[in-house]
Design brief:
Radius of gyration of chain A: 24 Å
Structural class of chain B: alpha+beta
Number of strands of chain A: 13
Strand content of chain B: 25-35%
Shape of chain A: elongated
Strand content of chain A: 25-35%
Largest interface: A-B, 30 and 34 residues
Number of strands of chain B: 5
Helix content of chain B: 40-55%
Strand order of the largest sheet of chain B: 2-1-5-4-3
Largest sheet of chain A: 6 strands, mixed, barrel
Structural class of chain A: alpha+beta
Largest sheet of chain B: 5 strands, antiparallel
Distance between the termini of chain A: 34 Å
Radius of gyration of chain B: 17 Å
Order of helices and strands of chain B: HEEHEEEH
Order of helices and strands of chain A: HEEHEEEHEEEEHEEEHE
Oligomer: heterodimer
Number of helices of chain A: 5
Chain lengths: 274, 131
C-alpha cells in the first residue's frame, strides 16, 4: 500500500480525532518497518524518530508474549498508549484527566476503521503485489531512448466506436478480464515516445499474473466517450507515483482521445498470441 | 570546612534508617509478589534493585527473554516519559497475543509481573500500588 496515500488520509484523520477529542495531546502512526506513516504537527520529526526507536526496541523483544498488541505507559502527567492494527502502530498520548473510556473508544474503533477504509479505497488490489515491487515485469519493454519500432506515430489507431465493436489485431489478443480504471496524467519530455503510455509496475505485474504469464504487447485505452486506442506500454519510472492509480499519457495520445489530465480512462492489456 | 562537615553528618544520620527501610520494603515486596504469584493466570515475577534480584517464573526457559523484555520496558518508559512529557512513570502494561506484563518501580525496586492474557491485571496493579 502506498504510504503517501496513507499519510494524507491518516494525517487528516489524526487532526480530526484531536479536534473531537482534545484529551489526545499527540498522535502518531508508524509502520512495521519503523517508517513514519502519519503524525500530528505538534511532534517534531526528531522526537518522532526517537519515539519509534524506543518502541521498536520493545517490539522486537515481544515474541515471547506473542508479539505486541498494546503498550500503555501511565505517567504522573499523562498516558502513552501504543496499539497495533494490522501492520501499523498507533501511538497516542493523553492528558492526566482524560476520559479514558472515550479516548479508548475513539482510538480503538476509529483508527482501525479508517485504516480499513483507506485500504479499500485504493484503486488496485495491491496486497500481494507489494512484495513484487522490486521485481521487473517480463513484458517486452524497450529503453526510453530507443526509437519506437513496432508502434510509430502513424500506427496509432483511434476509433470512435464503442468497446464491443473493437477488434484486436490478428497477432494479438485483447484480454477482457483485467481492466483498470486509471487517472490520466501528463507525460512529456524530449525523449518520450509519443506512442507509449506509462502504467504502474504493480498493475503490469497484476495483469501478467492474471494472464498466466503471457507477454503484454501493449494496452488499449478507452475513454468514457467510447474512443479507444492501442499503444505501447512501459512501467512508470518514478516510484513515488506508484500506488496512485495513474496512467501517464503523452500529448499526442491525449489529443487523439480528447482527454485531459485528471480524467478517467479504462485500460486493458493486449496480449501476444505467441 | 564547617559547611562540609555539617553535610557529612546529615548524610551519616540519614543513611542508616534509609537502608533499614529499603530492606523492609524489599521484604514486603517479595511477600506481596509471592502472594500475587498465586493469583489465577499469573506466570511469575521479577523483582530487581541495585543489589539483589528475585525471579519466580513457572517456565524457567523463558527467564532470559522475560528479563530482557522487562528491562527494555523500563528503559523505553523512561525515554517516553521525557519525549512525550508524561511525567514520572507510575506503571507500564504491555500486552501480546499470549501474555501481558505489568512493570512498575517502587522506590529503587523494579517489579515486573507476567501473566496470561486473560488474567486480572487491575487487581494486581491495585495490590502493587497499595505498597
Amino acid at each position: 500500500m502506498d504510504n503517501e496515500i496513507y499519510a494524507f488520509a491518516l494525517k487528516n484523520a489524526l487532526n480530526e480525532i484531536q479536534n473531537i477529542c482534545p484529551d489526545i495531546t499527540n498522535a502518531l502512526i508508524f509502520g512495521e518497518d519503523g517508517a513514519i506513516i502519519a503524525t500530528d504537527e505538534k511532534i517534531p520529526e526528531k522526537t518522532t524518530v526517537r519515539i519509534i526507536n524506543a518502541l521498536d526496541n520493545i517490539i522486537e523483544k515481544t515474541q515471547t508474549i506473542g508479539d505486541l498488541e498494546k503498550i500503555t505507559i501511565e505517567g504522573s502527567k499523562g498516558r502513552m498508549n501504543t496499539s497495533r492494527t494490522n501492520s501499523f502502530y498507533f501511538v497516542t498520548t493523553t492528558s492526566q484527566n482524560a476520559d479514558l473510556k472515550y479516548v479508548d473508544a475513539i482510538t480503538s474503533v476509529m483508527i482501525p476503521t479508517i485504516l480499513k477504509v483507506v485500504e479499500n479505497f485504493h484503486p488496485a488490489p495491491l496486497k500481494n503485489n507489494l512484495q513484487k515491487t522490486q521485481q521487473k515485469p517480463t513484458i517486452s519493454i524497450e529503453d526510453e531512448t530507443d526509437e519506437p519500432k513496432e508502434f510509430c506515430e502513424s500506427s496509432l489507431e483511434v476509433e470512435n466506436k464503442p468497446k464491443e465493436n473493437f477488434k484486436p489485431e490478428t497477432d494479438s489478443l485483447l484480454v477482457e478480464t483485467p481492466a483498470n480504471q486509471l487517472i490520466v496524467d501528463n507525460l512529456g519530455g524530449l525523449l518520450v515516445p509519443s506512442d507509449t503510455v506509462r502504467v504502474e509496475n504493480q498493475i503490469l505485474l497484476q495483469w501478467e499474473e492474471q494472464c498466466e504469464g503471457k507477454e503484454i504487447e501493449g494496452i488499449q485505452l478507452e475513454t468514457f466517450d467510447g474512443k479507444t486506442i492501442q499503444c505501447k506500454v512501459k512501467p512508470i519510472k518514478d516510484s513515488k507515483q506508484e500506488g496512485k492509480g495513474i496512467i501517464q499519457v503523452p500529448e499526442k495520445i491525449r489529443q487523439e482521445l480528447e482527454i485531459k489530465k485528471g480524467e478517467l480512462v479504462k485500460v486493458r492489456p493486449i496480449l501476444s498470441m505467441e | 570546612m564547617v559547611g562540609k562537615k555539617k553535610t557529612t553528618q546529615e548524610l551519616s544520620i540519614e543513611t542508616e534508617p534509609v537502608a533499614v527501610e529499603e530492606t523492609d520494603l524489599a521484604r514486603d515486596l517479595r511477600t506481596t509478589l509471592e502472594e500475587i504469584a498465586k493469583y489465577e493466570g499469573v506466570i511469575g515475577y521479577i523483582l530487581r534493585n541495585s543489589t539483589s534480584a528475585a525471579i519466580d517464573l513457572k517456565d524457567p526457559t523463558k527467564i532470559i527473554d522475560y528479563a530482557i523484555l522487562s528491562s527494555s520496558l523500563f528503559d523505553a518508559g523512561e525515554e517516553m516519559s521525557t519525549l512525550l512529557n508524561i511525567g514520572d512513570i507510575k506503571n507500564i502494561i504491555i500486552e501480546g497475543k499470549d501474555a501481558k506484563i505489568i512493570s512498575l518501580t517502587v522506590d529503587e525496586n523494579r517489579i515486573s509481573v507476567f501473566m496470561e492474557k486473560n488474567a486480572n491485571s487491575e487487581k494486581i496493579l491495585r495490590k502493587l500500588h497499595s505498597l
